[in-house]
């Protein structure tokens, strides 16, 4: 069940990341669909900030049963008048123009600066700031290269999915050898992002370490990851009210 935030002020924007949707997590999927068909309808803008899918093999996979249902739910939201935005994560960076068209959403670069409720906010997925994880940064540079993506997307869909499965296995094994600090954002990279954007608020996900960090006139909001299929359900989103106040809202499985 989705918990209501209880705020009386109109909601200007909602921010979500790291749902990691796939067919094997039915309760998490249901919770996300309830979010799209419920709370999200009452916001002016909804920002999906990466890793909404556990993986995305290419826009030619839209018409599969599970993926088609998610796209249809996103389209219902955008057709209702809510402005819907998508930023690529490290799992779903292959989402493209066809997906955006079918879902009725706008693709954003990483990072992107927006202004709401009198605030200048920089949005990011968060992985680009994990500069201490040098192995991951090399991998990120490779798979974000347009030439690599063009070659990869030219492969048959089944072959792409097999390669992605191998990448996911390799990623899980590599993470076992790394400390949480290495996989977290680098303080210098965060400072540079604030400086280059001129923003006073940063919203990002990726790290699965939800928190609010304040200092030197800036605030960093880290979004939660979602898992309603485990023993202790977790997940949620960040709401920005018209008065400039941020409210965290949680989910239950």
Automatic annotation (TrEMBL):
Mn(2+) 2 binds at residues 51, 90, 125, 206. Pfam families: Metallophos. Binds 2 Mn(2+) ions per subunit in a binuclear metal center. Substrate binds at residues 90-91, 133, 171, 175, 178, 206. Residues 14-210 form the Calcineurin-like phosphoesterase domain. Keywords: Cell inner membrane, Cell membrane, Hydrolase, Lipid A biosynthesis, Lipid biosynthesis, Lipid metabolism, Manganese, Membrane, Metal-binding. One of its GO terms (cellular component) is extrinsic component of plasma membrane. Its EC number is 3.6.1.54. It is a peripheral membrane protein. InterPro entries: Calcineurin-like_PHP, LpxH-like, Metallo-depent_PP-like, UDP-diacylglucosamine_Hdrlase. It catalyses: UDP-2-N,3-O-bis[(3R)-3-hydroxytetradecanoyl]-alpha-D-glucosamine + H2O = 2-N,3-O-bis[(3R)-3-hydroxytetradecanoyl]-alpha-D-glucosaminyl 1-phosphate + UMP + 2 H(+). Its cofactor is Mn(2+). It is an enzyme of class 3 (hydrolase). GO terms for biological process: lipid A biosynthetic process. Mn(2+) 1 binds at residues 18, 20, 51, 208. One of its GO terms (molecular function) is manganese ion binding. It is found in: Cell inner membrane. Pathway: Glycolipid biosynthesis; lipid IV(A) biosynthesis; lipid IV(A) from (3R)-3-hydroxytetradecanoyl-[acyl-carrier-protein] and UDP-N-acetyl-alpha-D-glucosamine: step 4/6. It comes from the Bacteria. Belongs to the LpxH family. Hydrolyzes the pyrophosphate bond of UDP-2,3-diacylglucosamine to yield 2,3-diacylglucosamine 1-phosphate (lipid X) and UMP by catalyzing the attack of water at the alpha-P atom. Involved in the biosynthesis of lipid A, a phosphorylated glycolipid that anchors the lipopolysaccharide to the outer membrane of the cell. This is UDP-2,3-diacylglucosamine hydrolase. It comes from Noviherbaspirillum galbum. The gene is lpxH.
